Amino acid sequence: MEAYRKEIEGLEIVTPQQLEEYRIKFLGTKGIVKSLFGEMKNVPNERKKEFGQVLNDFKQFAETKYETAKEQSAGNGQQAVEEIDLSLPGDAMQTGSRHPINLVRKRILDIFNRLGFAVADGPEIEDDWHNFTSLNLPEHHPARDMQDTFYIHQNPDWLLRTHTSNVQTREMEKGKLPIRIICPGRVYRNETISARAHCFFHQVEGLYIDEHVSFADLKQTLYFFVQELFGKDVKVRFRPSYFPFTEPSAEMDISCLICGGDGCRVCKHTGWVEILGCGMVHPKVLENCGIDSNKYTGYAFGMGIERIAMLLYQINDLRLFSENDVRFLRQFV
């Protein structure tokens, strides 16, 4: 033990590693102190008290050395922390960017805000009445086949909304006229994922109801919107179409900005891209929502934000928007 005492006195413990090595060697479960106490069984009974006192003194000596070195090590660490210069500049952080869908959504809303449209929002999980029946799509109506749907509960029916038209019906039910709203949001349809389609996407729908609203008002609103978004030189055409919630109905095409009208897979090699559907609100829809169709008329329109973004940024695959590839997302500011 005298040899161990001299060894401990001569030790210089500076680093945390040296401190831990000392603890293991002398105070650990298989350390020297533990080993010396194990020798008590070999000491004659008449000398056990004397030997025990010597062992306890040695143990206290070894523990005191450890505690002193531990305090010094902590003090050195605190001193090192205090020596850090907090005025030095930190590591540079890379600035993120907004998602292209959000950028396009904001541009669309800004244009319609200038025309007096207010933003309205509604639930993504919807009942059958607000998503279908109130929009002149009663149960078993063949037009429901146009929207293959994700049902989450049936009898009564609850589903992931297939369009943001549910927001329009909820606003009409409030009975506060006139109505001039724009309804952005995410919608869901059970479609095969491809360069042109996905099982979820984002829409912006608009609704204007007042006295003496005409199809001419609708056309001029959409002409203004397209020219503000795509420029004065974009070509526009309206095609007659069918939607159960509007009559008459039309689809609006613009010249393809990706191929310049020469034809590509986005425009199906026609030179034209459909960007929205529109029409005059069906009188049945007005009546379902408690609005007098003899006094009020209105128009509605809806567009997919992904389709608009593909044209604005000349992107030929819709799936890029949802793959979260930072190499793609970093291109937008």
From TrEMBL:
Catalytic reaction(s) noted: tRNA(Phe) + L-phenylalanine + ATP = L-phenylalanyl-tRNA(Phe) + AMP + diphosphate + H(+)
EC number: 6.1.1.20
Swiss-Prot/TrEMBL keywords: Aminoacyl-tRNA synthetase, ATP-binding, Cytoplasm, Ligase, Magnesium, Metal-binding, Nucleotide-binding, Protein biosynthesis
GO cellular component assignments: cytoplasm
SUPFAM superfamilies reported in the protein's UniProt record: Class II aaRS and biotin synthetases, tRNA-binding arm
UniProt binding sites for Mg(2+): 247
Reported cofactor(s): Mg(2+)
Predominant location: cytoplasm
InterPro entries: aa-tRNA-synth_II (IPR006195), aa-tRNA-synth_II/BPL/LPL (IPR045864), Phe-tRNA-synth_IIc_asu (IPR004529), Phe-tRNA_ligase_II_N (IPR004188), Phe_tRNA_ligase_alpha1_bac (IPR022911), Phenylalanyl-tRNA_Synthase (IPR002319), tRNA-bd_arm (IPR010978)
EC top class named in words: ligase
Domain Aminoacyl-transfer RNA synthetases class-II family profile, chain residue ranges per copy: 104-331
GO molecular function, one term: ATP binding
One BP annotation, GO: phenylalanyl-tRNA aminoacylation
Subcellular location: Cytoplasm
Alphabetical list of HAMAP family matching this protein: Phe_tRNA_synth_alpha1 (MF_00281)
Assembly description: Tetramer of two alpha and two beta subunits.
NCBIfam families per record: pheS
Family according to the record: Belongs to the class-II aminoacyl-tRNA synthetase family. Phe-tRNA synthetase alpha subunit type 1 subfamily.
Listed name of the protein: Phenylalanine--tRNA ligase alpha subunit
Organism (species): Paraflavisolibacter caeni
Name of the coding gene: pheS
